[in-house]
Amino acid sequence: MQNTGKARYLASKNNWQLSKSRHFRCHHSGNSMMRLRRNPTMLKKLIALFSMAFIAFSAHAERFKAGEDYQVLEMATPLYSDNSPSVTEFFSFYCPHCFRNQALMEALEPKLPENTRVIKQHVSFMGGKMGPELSKALAAAELLKVDDTMIPVIFERIHSLRKPPRSAEEVRQMFLDNGVDAKKFDGVINSFAVNSMVARFDKAFEATGLTGVPAVIVNGKYYLTPKTIKSLDEYIELVDFLLKK
């Protein structure tokens, strides 16, 4: 009986403490609400703030729509094995639209989150026999860390100067004319690393199921089709939206 009585006492004590704790929390909230009721200006500001946040969220959610601003690619295997955020541009040096798209990509890149990978992949199906040669040129430029220099040079030569390279030797000379060491270029242009990169370019583009360039893909699965986008800021906002999906 003593044990039973002690147990009842402890249970009663615990229930009282729990009740007291609950009362304290409710009382605390009650005071906050009372303060808000006594200060209608603060209450109105809070309501306005929450309303604006809800409207902004709704507008952002409705602004970008699958089928209009982007398409979700249906691929048997992911474009990339990891889940790091990425923006991939498939392009051809021979494509005039790709040439014009470079200004957009250059403006976009500094606005991306710091951990976002920007990946350029050249397709070989344009330019006849020189298509694969320029895919190798991009791969070599990336390995030699001169892609920021050589990509604009090649585009300018084809579309501004109207003097597209007509042989592998002319491609080589472009690199040399822009400060690349001849031995370093010769050491990589036909290497296993370059040929493997070109094969990956082609395989990745084929996996997307797309047939044309330029093609910008976010996180390996969202293909941009920005029909409603009217400015660079909106384009950047769309990319940021998809990076976070």
Automatic annotation (TrEMBL):
Pfam families: DSBA (PF01323). Transmembrane segments: none annotated. InterPro entries: DSBA-like_thioredoxin_dom, DsbA/DsbL, Thiol_disulfide_DsbA, Thioredoxin-like_sf, Thioredoxin_CS, Thioredoxin_domain. Keywords: Disulfide bond, Isomerase, Periplasm, Redox-active center, Signal. GO terms for molecular function: disulfide oxidoreductase activity; isomerase activity. Residues 48-244 form the Thioredoxin domain. Gene3D superfamilies: Glutaredoxin (3.40.30.10). PANTHER family: THIOL:DISULFIDE INTERCHANGE PROTEIN DSBA. This is Thiol:disulfide interchange protein DsbA. It comes from uncultured Vibrionales bacterium HF0010_22E23.
